[in-house]
Each structure stands twice: as C-alpha cells, then as structure tokens.
Write a structure and sequence with these properties.
This protein is 47% helix and 17% strand. The chain is an alpha/beta fold and 257 residues long. Helix 1 runs parallel beside helix 2 and helix 3 runs parallel beside helix 4.
C-alpha cells in the first residue's frame, strides 16, 4: 500500500455491515490507522454512532444506507464513495446474516436471501470497486467468511447449511479472484469462529459460551471483535505483502464443535 504521513491523503476504506459487531470494530481500527471510512449498512442509527465515534477521534467517515444484496445499489454506493472520497483503497465485505434452519424448514426465499446477503453481496461490491483500484494501481479486499465454511455449522442441532454454503462460496470466489486480480489487487478471506459481539444472534455463544471455551477452544476463551479486526487491519495495511487468495481462520483453535 502507498505510504502515509504528513501531507499524504488518507486511505479510503469501504466497510459493508459496519454498523455493529465485527464490522464496527474493523471500521474503528481502520480509522485509527488514518483511513477515511465509508460505512454501508441498513442500520442507520447504529451506523451514525460509529461515524460520530470516528469523528470524535479526529477521523472522517460517511454513512451510506443500502441492502448489500442489491447489485444496482452497490454500484451507486461505490460511485458515491468515489465522488465524495476520491477512490477506494480497501474494501471489507463484512455484511452477513445467519440462517438457523435445516433443509426441511428453510424456504426457497430464505435460502436465496441467505446466499444474496452473504455471498452475492461480495460480488456486488467487488465488481464496481476493481476498476477504481486498478486506476490507482493497487488495492486490498477482504471478504468475511466463517469457520462454518469448514465445519458446516456449530452443532447438528442448529443447522446452518445455507449460511455454511454461502460462506464456503466466498472461499472459492477469493481464490479465483486472487488469480484474476493479481498482482495489483490482493484479496483474502477471514473466517471467524465463535466471536462475542453485541449482536445476540448466536444461541451457542449465549447459552454455552463458557463451556465451549473451556472444553473446545485451545485458548480457553470465546473470541472478541478485536481478534478479527487486528487481522483485517494487517491484511489492509501490511507492506510489503505476499499474501493473496488465502483464508485465515480466527477461532483460538476450536477443536470440538
């Protein structure tokens, strides 16, 4: 990535799903590294809180409301970021949604929506961002996958087959795009395990977090959002960088599902 310092314009990061959880923490950490942040989410009040926190610490952020599954809206978002901030140096495809339903319970619409939010959304934002990165000669992309891409889900009792399928698809997309977009653009995936956030969506963490940490994670704790954000920040800023097309698991070595 290009150097920063006095007189150097800030780098620009576009973060989908930046209103809370892992996306929020990544946005705050990137802002600490002098990135200007474009936040994309449907949760406007929470997104505004992140923007205000960034600006209280001297950074710059803008908020853009969007359903990440909407391809045409993604193109509008990237154009708006380009118009307001000048370019996109780093894209974090973080937005996602779980779907705890098995094959006999899930509807076709629920399956399609799960794939659209978790997998198609990455395509939606990568496609219009690549020309901007190529125009500047470099860029970094990180797509948020999941340990579920490998495990198929946390337990047999709580099926997440559609979510696991979408997150596994991200890994194939990243590997293929690493070949297509190199050497100018680096693209990688991050696969969090059990991460505690303010989002009460994970029944396993809420009900059995301490038990799983003690008996099923080598580091004896559930992960926190900073565990993921630190890796994302490294992938966004490391220079030189000989890493692309990779999937990084952040799970404290979770050996019992």
């Amino acid at each position: 990535m290009r150097p920063t310092g006095k007189g150097t314009p800030p780098r620009i990061a576009l973060v989908t799903g930046g209103a809370r959880g892992i996306g929020r923490r990544c946005a705050l950490r990137l802002a600490e590294k002098d990135f200007s942040i474009a936040l994309v989410d449907l949760l406007v009040p929470e997104m505004e809180e992140v923007r205000q926190e960034i600006e209280r610490h001297g950074g710059r952020a803008i908020c853009l409301e969007a359903d990440v599954a909407d391809h045409s809206r993604a193109k509008e978002i990237v154009s708006e970021v380009h118009a307001k901030l000048g370019r996109v140096d780093f894209l974090l495809n973080n937005a996602g949604r779980s779907m705890p339903k098995g094959i006999l319970e899930i509807t076709e619409d629920e399956f399609d929506r799960t794939i659209a939010i978790n997998l198609k959304s990455c395509f939606n934002y990568i496609q219009p961002t690549v020309p901007l990165m190529r125009a500047t000669g470099e860029g970094r992309i990180v797509c948020m996958s999941s340990l579920n891409a490998y495990s198929g889900g946390v337990t047999a009792a709580v099926s997440r087959f559609a979510y696991a399928a979408a997150k596994a698809g991200i890994l194939g997309m990243v590997r293929a795009l690493a070949k297509e977009l190199g050497p100018q653009i680096h693209i990688n995936a991050v696969c969090p395990g059990l991460i505690a956030t303010e989002v009460p969506k994970n029944e396993v963490i809420n009900a059995r977090g301490a038990e799983i940490a003690e008996n099923g994670i080598a580091l004896k704790r559930i992960g926190c959002t900073d565990d993921v954000a630190q890796l994302v920040m490294f992938l966004a800023t490391s220079d030189p960088c000989f890493i692309t097309g990779q999937a990084f698991v952040v799970d404290g070595f979770q050996f019992q599902m």
